[in-house]
Design brief:
The protein is built from four helices and five strands; from the N terminus they run H-E-E-E-E-H-H-E-H. The protein is an alpha+beta fold. The termini are far apart.
Amino acid sequence: MEIRSTTASVDILGMAVGGLGLLLFVLCTGTDCWRQDAKDPHSSVGLSSRCRGLWSECVFDNMANLWTCDIPISYLSEHSAALVITRALVIVTGILCIPAVPCLITGMKCTKLISDQVHQKYKFSFAAGTLFLLGGLSGAIAVLWYAVDTVQKYSLEVSLGIPGVTYELGYSYWMAAAGTICLCVTGILLIVANFPSTRTPRRGRKHPRASLPSVSQRKGTYL
């Protein structure tokens, strides 16, 4: 009974943390400011602020107080490898983590969507944890890849003294990084809490049959 209450608490905690991670991923995709103009002497930005995302590039005019965004006509056009890979991994993260939410709700011990026979709820919670962890790892690769590419480009532009706009990591990137951590933590919690209970219970051992009395112990009934 104590183990059941513990896993129920882990399910609720996993739902909260996993939901937060998924929400942060949705927000980072909606705001789409993974790179912003660096506030340093090497940047020529003065009257405007720039944001580069996975799907568009926007400029904010400080004088007119107006956002203007440039959205490419085709997302299949020629782009850098880092951008294409980050896009693909973010999509994979969403595909893996969105189904994990109803799967976890079904497996939560406080819900009555399915019966609790043969450890079905534990299996659903374990499956949800696996999806969250895979989605978090996919997002972690995307975040790491994008950060390395951004830092390398910034270092190159600064070292060569290339005039123009230099970019650093934007607020959408940090939301994606926080969301990735939440998803990985959720996956690990659910897997660790539910894995021992997903094993098929062993059948009860059969009681050994009573051994027959030896010949010497039998009472003689025949002549």
